[in-house]
Write a structure and sequence with these properties.
Chain lengths: 240, 229
């Protein structure tokens, strides 16, 4: 579904991604772990071109999205993204947060979008918040709304960029529960996370990144159970 | 006390002088409003160019950006009086000093307004643009529906400040023989032979700026309320 070939990314003189190649198949739940500064968030943000790669190719659904001819906005409709800091739109109600993109892009009428939003909000038990503004919600609620907002576009793949890192500890659970639910429904997902237990439980495959390359990848059992790479071993000994 | 009243009578009532203040006030307000509108339009255009030029490889946009930077640097780096004199005596085809004021003050406040717009838009968290784009919205749509509505909250109060200082700044219009409030009151001073007319003019300016400040406060309060949800 997503094929990455020799991806390079520089920020000025700093090389963040040093040739990453990876294929993500439909239905996979790929967790990316690694120390901070390892390039894992940059890698994720390259997948929907929030960062423009310096070199290499990314293919999505048989189309080279790194090509200048590619309509990036169209591609992004099929890739939902969830951010560390939620990035809800504070000037819009929860309902409008969820319905803005489908309606403005002409995919749904406002009424259809409202119904979709209502269904999604019911699913996460926040239907009564439809007409309130993001400022009234807790962090956990905000992140769940942000996930639902991405789902409302009916994406083929969901990208999660440290979705629980900015949350108070007592709110991490509710967000992880929702992500797990989305995963169980068969969604293809790529998750950058520090929650090793969650990665172990939900992911079908785990990538370990360090210094701009994928140093090891495996099933969660194998990667966490018998890590081969020295850096991975030292990383796991610190975080587990 | 009697002297003060006599002097005020001389400054205001005798020979229907109050009409002169109103004439001057009308010119001052005209210049302020027209220049403000020119400034807002100009400022918006410049701000859009500067924001879109960041990280762009489009040569036209880059050239425009250079021009815009030159414009704001020159205008903000030289005295307003001088700019006004250059426009009045340089563009001799202009029909009147008042028109020169529209243009001069308009161009001047455009440079300041552009920085207000740019600052207001840049102060919106970059994550907002990213979130909009990640949903497949174009840059323009995200600007329009998400970034601009939030930027307005930062922009409007500062823009009102600019309007207030513009109102006061127009008092230099007399340099190019425009009969604004300051110039006319100074003229009346020549007749009354005391400075009371200048106090009258001062009171009128003060009245206007205090009113505008009240409006600005009201706007700020409204925005603060919607921020709390």
């Amino acid at each position: 579904m997503i094929e990455v070939k020799n991806l390079l990314k520089n920020f000025g003189d700093l090389t963040v991604l040093k040739g990453v190649s990876e294929t993500i198949k439909p239905g996979e739940k790929v967790a990316i772990v690694g120390p901070s500064g390892s390039g894992k968030s940059t890698f994720l943000r390259c997948l929907n071109l929030l960062e423009t790669p310096t070199g290499g190719e990314i293919w999505f659904d048989g189309e080279e999205i790194t090509s200048p001819r590619c309509d990036v906005d169209k591609v992004r409709r099929k890739m939902g993204m969830v951010f560390q800091h939620f990035n809800l739109f504070p000037n819009l109600t929860i309902q409008r947060n969820i319905t803005l993109a489908p309606v403005k892009l002409g995919l749904q009428t406002q009424q259809q979008a409202n119904e979709t939003a209502d269904t999604l909000l019911r699913r996460i038990g926040l239907a009564d918040k439809a007409d309130t503004y993001p400022a009234m919600l807790s962090g956990g609620q905000k992140q769940r709304i942000a996930i639902v907002r991405a789902l409302a576009m009916n994406p083929q793949v969901m990208l999660f960029d440290e979705p629980t890192s900015a949350l108070d500890p007592e709110m991490v659970g509710e967000v992880l529960d929702l992500i797990r639910e989305v995963a169980d429904a068969g969604m293809t997902m790529v998750i950058v996370t520090h929650e090793m237990h969650f990665a172990r439980e939900v992911a079908t495959r785990v990538l370990f990144m360090d210094e701009g390359v994928i140093r090891e990848q495996n099933t969660p059992e194998a990667l966490f159970g018998s890590p081969q790479d020295e850096r991975l071993q030292s990383f796991l000994s610190k975080v587990l | 006390m009697q002297t003060i009243l006599d002097n005020l009578y001389g400054a205001l009532i005798r020979e229907n002088r109050w009409q002169l203040y109103l004439q001057g006030l009308a010119i001052t307000l005209q210049i302020t409003l027209v220049a403000c509108l020119i400034g807002i339009v100009l400022g918006m255009l410049v701000a859009v160019v500067k924001i879109y030029a960041v990280g762009s490889r489009n040569p036209v946009l880059k050239a425009l950006n250079v021009i815009c930077n030159f414009y704001t640097t020159v205008i903000r780096g030289t005295p307003m009086v001088l700019q006004l004199l250059i426009i009045y005596f340089g563009l001799t085809f202009l029909p009147s000093g008042v028109v020169a004021c529209y243009i001069g003050f308009g161009i001047n406040s455009g440079a300041y307004a552009s920085e207000i717009f740019r600052g207001g838009i840049n102060s919106v968290d970059a994550g907002q643009m990213e979130a909009g784009r990640s949903l497949g919205l174009s840059r323009n749509s995200t600007m329009r529906y998400i970034v601009m509505p939030q930027a307005v909250k930062n922009i409007l109060p500062s823009l009102f400040n600019e309007l207030i200082s513009l109102l006061k700044e127009t008092s230099i219009a007399g340099y190019i023989a425009v009969n604004d409030l300051t110039k006319l009151s100074n003229g009346i001073k020549g007749r009354t032979l005391n400075i009371y007319p200048l106090f009258v003019a001062g009171a009128l300016y003060l009245l206007l700026t205090v009113l505008l400040t009240q409006v600005q406060r009201w706007i700020e309060r409204r925005f603060a309320r919607s921020d709390r949800g």
